[in-house]
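Hi U.,

Before I forget, here's the chain from the pilot set. I'm dumping it here mostly so it's searchable later in email.
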Amino acid sequence: MLSLLSSAQANTENPTPVSAVSATSAWDAFLPTPKPVGEGQFRRWGFLIYDATLWSSNGQYKANEPFALRLSYARNVSRDQIVDASIDQMRELGVDVAQHPDWPDKLRRVFADVNKGDSLTGIYMPGNGAVFFYNNQLTGQVDEALAQAFFSIWLDPQTTEPDLRLSLLGLAQ
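Structure:
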C-alpha cells in the first residue's frame, strides 16, 4: 500500500474527469469488488450539497472492516469550507480536535476545491487510516485517529445527520 501511495501523484489542478474512470476502478487496491451499502443526500437549507454512497466489499457495513464513503457534489464548495465543516462536525461529536492541531492541514492535503459533478472518496482501512481520492485520483492518506474522527461525521450514532446515517447504512425506512 505504501508504495502505491508514494508513487501516486496528487494532481488536483488537472484531475481525471469522473467519466473517464469507473466509479470504483481507482479504488481496487484498497477495496476490491466494492458493493454499495446505502446512499443518501446531504442538504443544507433545502439545497442539495452532495449525494453520499457508502461501499464495502460485501455490501454490508462493519466498522472494523474496510469501507468507502463517496461524496458526489451538486455545488461548488471550497477545500477550506470542507475542512472547516469537517472539523466543526468532529467537534460536535465530542472529538477533542484541540489535541490535534495538525488535522486541518492534513485534511487540506487530501481534499480539493470541488465543483458541481466532482467527487471526494475516502476509503477506511482499519488500523491503517484512510486514503482519499478526488475524482478517482489518489490524493493522499491520513492516520487512524483522524480517519476514525472523520468518518464518524456520517457513521457515528450521534451524528448531526441521523437520517443520512440510516440511509448510508441501508437502514432507512
